Amino acid sequence: MRVLHQDRGAGEIKMMIETLDDLWHLYNIIDEGDMIISVTFRREEVKSDKIRAERAEKKRMVLGVRAEKIEFHETESRLRILGVIEEGPQDVGSYHTLNLAEGDVVTVRKTEWSPLKLERVRRSVEDARRPKLMYVALDNDEAVIAVARQFGMQEVARICSSGSGKMYEQKCHDDFYPEIVDKVRQSAEPGVPLVILGPGFAKEALVTLGKEKEPELFGKAFVYHTGQSGMAGIQELMKAGMGSEVVQDSRAAQETKAVETVLEQIAKDGPVAYGPADVEKATMAGAVDTLLVLDTEVRKENVEGMMTAVESGRGNVLVVSERFEAGKKLEAIGGIAALLRYKLS
Description:
Layout lengths: L1 E6 L4 E5 L3 H10 L5 E9 L14 E16 L4 E10 L7 E6 L4 E5 L5 H15 L3 E6 L3 E8 L2 E9 L15 H12 L6 E5 L3 H12 L1 H4 L3 E4 L4 H11 L3 H4 L3 H17 L4 E3 L1 H9 L3 E7 L6 H12 L3 E5 L4 H8 L3 E5 L5
Parallel strand pairs: 8-11, 11-12, 14-15
Antiparallel strand pairs: 1-2, 2-7, 3-4, 3-7, 4-5, 5-6, 8-9, 9-10, 13-16, 14-16
């Protein structure tokens, strides 16, 4: 994300959406009731009843919409904001949907920017500078290519050595490794580290071919042995802390480590709280060192109050994506947890 302009007096921040991750950040920044201003397309107002509205041509215009519904559509790379038009050249008072995508410029106007929302803006700018991670997790039968993004782990392709795989027609075994190399080449981005993992010797065979066909990509690849392949192997790698030199700064690794620490402390009856009621008590006691909140819970008023209280008490707040495996584990224990400075009775 790139911040183009800020007007604290008017409560406005103008931003350019540069990546799919930025849409995810905006989904967490925008609240119901915010004014969202962006370029959009809408049919011209019809002056005469003789012309059907559906035949009118869509025109490019800038509209300000009061957000009522915010939806993040990962598969379509879109952020949809539905609301009533309050600013614009026409149709004020009518409903309109803004479809935000990469490359769009959007202004978000709030009555008040909370420290948490401003921190999210800052983080979105910082995250844009961090390289994502590309994983290839494979065994002799199947390979999964995935990219770690800020909103979660995105599976790019699933390729089988025989039979059919996602996005692919049936291929013979001899095409297995070349097809993986080709898909990695298509999906790779400059500066994004490549991590290859899995059981057995399939990963070594892939690296050998990759260095021959795409030396720039595979020559600097990180290779790790795991007991599993596929998405399970990627989670195993992050949970075990293997390859910390390359994954330690990724959002996925941070969230995975924090949630696993919570689960370990629960098992040991250590200094930890989980579930809304217990975490709120720990927050009121000033005992929270790190607060973990599922992103779907952030919009709840009492949760935002706890997040503010923890930060005011010099604690850390980590928003965990529901799309990561760590998010699913956090959801299972109530969607909110806290690592404490000391154990509460």
